[in-house]
Amino acid sequence: MSTFALGLRLVLRGNRATRVRFLLMTAGCALGVACLAAVLTIPALLAAHDGRDAARDLVPGKEARAGRTSTTLALKRTDPYGSHLLTRVFVARPEKENGPVPPGMDRLPGPGEVLVSPELRDLLREHPGLRPSLPGQVTGTIGAAGLTGPRELYAYVGRTHAQLPDGEAVRSFGSRWPSTHAVDSSTLDPLRFTLCCLVLLPLAVYFSVCVRLSAESRGRRLAALRLLGLSARQTMRVSAVETLCAAVLGAVLGLGLHLVVNTAVAGTGLPGLAWYPSDGLPSGSTLAACLLGCPALAYLAGRRHAREAALRPLAVRRQARQRRARWLGALLLLPGLGIVSTYCVLGALGRIGVSTSLTAVLVPAGALLTGAGLVLALPPATGWLARRIASATQRLPLTLAMRHNESRPGAVLRVVSGLVVLVYAGSLTQGVLVEIDQVSRRIAPVQEYELAYDKLTARQRADMKAAGGVRGHVVTVESTAGSLGAFVGTCAQLRAFADPGSVRGCVDGRPLVLRDSRYQVAEKARPGRRYGMPLRGEDGRPAGTYRYSAPRESVGLTVVQPSALMSADIVLPPSALPPGTHPAGAHLVLSSAPDPGTVRRTLDRLAGIAPTAEITPVGIVIESLSQLGVIKGLLGTGMVLGLVIGVAAFLVSAADRAMDRRGQITALTLLGARSRTLRAAQCAQVLLPLALGLGGALVAGRLAESSYLVTGGGAVFWDGEGLPLLLLSTLGVLLVAGLASLPMARRHLDPEVLRGD
Questions:
Q1: Nearest 10 degrees: CA dihedral of 452, 458, 459, 460?
Q2: Helix (H), strand (E) at residue 447
Q3: Entry pTM
């Protein structure tokens, strides 16, 4: 207890520098714990989303006769509303008894009643045209227990049994497995691995930096206590008290910061996913990792330096030359590089097949071993290179910088490792984004959107054709018993939907038979044969029949697949139809660029123009598009957290090194060193290990990224497009680090520093 009291007294009653160091350690640990809690909470958020969806899932009964009034009937419809999903559950409750009730509701809605989610209620106020798709009067809202998130569009519509002839008998609500997932299980493992590399690796480095602030001055103080009569064990306990107090207090503050941020961000949907604040509360394992794991990590990180002061107090007080950094930890780099390089070679030889369970273990293990070995190899590699440069150069600033790096190799790890890990993890994240983009990317050069022509007003059709992102429009009609499938449009419109450069022989103003070189022409499109196409007017009423003969002339093209034009047999010019008419059963087909961002924005614009219209993005499943947004949002959040952690680790460690070098700066100033010399030495001292580490991170990161792409099953093995971005980012990091190191070599004659030594 005496050593514990002594440690507390040193923390609470120390000088100003000691109190400032304690506050910095506490604030640093708080930021790290907040980031750690945010990452560990992501799986819980996804599990809560899936659990809420499973709790309201329909469990069918044994009988499903619509006329049975004593049974609860339900009919579920999910439609796209822009890039989101609008789910409507039509229910008919029993007449004489209480039926099952889904979570978030007290009772099932009766005929003519509608219960909606809060987000859908607000949307109905902004777009009243959406009300026809929800027949009835909105009488209440669905509680949080019945929704996967606060921004979900969900509704229960009350109907009679007679109005649900296709309804399914419902025994209960709630199943063991959800019908949909926020993130598909095949994508969840790569997402977890990427977040670990992107956030947890820099976080471990950041914790080790924060708990070893002013390591040299703390070591000298512990050595003084040892020389005053404390035993080695008591000295270690005194060091542990200060470290654990800062770590525990920082962990508590970090959890509080996480709760505040969770409450503020939960309903915004910024990470691509909206959740309820209660879903983001730390679980038991998260609390254990933050309140127990972080202090334990802090203790282990500070134990080595405290042990040195306890066992060799005279050497620490006299600032004896430190031992050379060992290459033992760097041996982790060998198996890591061996694994990722092997997969890269196999990929170059074309011998990689489908991903197996062994590959799913080896590739993440190789990437983690490579990252850890890269960090641990920095001190010995920098010390070796510094000795070579110092013995070969004749420039005073460079000699001062290299000799300092040679004598203090451990300081290198604290200063540059955060940025090195950040660049390495950024390369891995880029590989994951490339792989996801391959899976979700539409190979076709255009993306089509199909809407029922009669469901739109003339103003809506005009607004959709002029909407941002829409670059082509056409009217199509499917073939019937007495009519061909037709494409009503001009040659320019035809070129907007076909493969670029594939349209040959198109003449405006003439009917033309469509001939795709990959398929045979339909037998019914024989030249001279007569056909009839029923027409409708602007009011939707019949307007006669358009009679035409299949022409002999044709137009050659290559139809994009999948496409709404695949069933078209003939091209009809718009001028061929009577004014103010259109084919019965026609569809308005729009086109845009195929990239996911443009598709989401276009869907949102079209839904804003016609909220009740059913928009079918040809060849795209809206659920997959929504999952893609969640995955990219979570990866973007991880990149922001990794950037904050990496930059914070560099700034804290660089400032700490500058404080520890005040005595050296003062001594060099008294010896006559100029400000330019000191700044050049400080800049070189930081840039050499940083350039060495970033160069290794680029090479190792590219190998790890390529091994992931090779085993991912996609067509892209080598991400050449991302290399310039990484190079520019690396040069930017070097430039910022060099500029940030200049003010830390400020000339300041502080006799107190020399007197203390």
A1: 0
A2: strand 447-452
A3: 0.71
